[in-house]
């Protein structure tokens, strides 16, 4: 089981590469007669044409699941519905869903798993031993955490639940698929990465760092300049977690992340 075909899954990669989207956004098709789609991807006509074409080869679309309401994942929804017809749309994002999904809900062959952190409405989808992770876990690199109440604690809890699953395949929102034992290893790597950042942040605070630049320099020093806004947002999520746990020293500055919504 080292190929997507063994799982009857296909990836259609959108032409929107970038620092946050890696090679581009992945739209996934599962099964056939009908197939089910995870994430329409961005509103790029050529991408939606290819996705609809692949779906037609697979005997049409049973439904479209959305991992989270960011433009690079859900922006193509209207365009895709125009191409494949008015099929059910399963999401936790109220504005997108014809079937509002919550943790544990089934949507065709998919089971929704709440995975907040990158976005409050984020869902992963489980189909057999395949897990569609959206932006909760990527093919490579790490994700940014969008700070809102309990975002990081919720994210770590979700990762622990995913790690406990019987998995043979990860299908991320960006980057290539991950097969076999590597799937679980990748999830553990993501959890450990977050815990490492927290450890480095606590070290910085114990060393007297209070400004967000000092904390970033110590705990996110390896992050390229173009990703600094994402690192700041993630730092804010870490600070919120420490504050909620009563572990944040007085005077520590939460970065002003303004309107940054990221991707
Ligand atoms: Zn994304």
Automatic annotation (TrEMBL):
<dbReference type="InterPro" id="IPR036388">
    <property type="entry name" value="WH-like_DNA-bd_sf"/>
</dbReference>
<feature type="domain" description="Metallo-beta-lactamase">
    <location>
        <begin position="24"/>
        <end position="174"/>
    </location>
</feature>
<dbReference type="InterPro" id="IPR050662">
    <property type="entry name" value="Sec-metab_biosynth-thioest"/>
</dbReference>
<dbReference type="InterPro" id="IPR036866">
    <property type="entry name" value="RibonucZ/Hydroxyglut_hydro"/>
</dbReference>
<protein>
    <submittedName>
        <fullName>Unannotated protein</fullName>
    </submittedName>
</protein>
<dbReference type="Pfam" id="PF00753">
    <property type="entry name" value="Lactamase_B"/>
</dbReference>
<dbReference type="InterPro" id="IPR001279">
    <property type="entry name" value="Metallo-B-lactamas"/>
</dbReference>
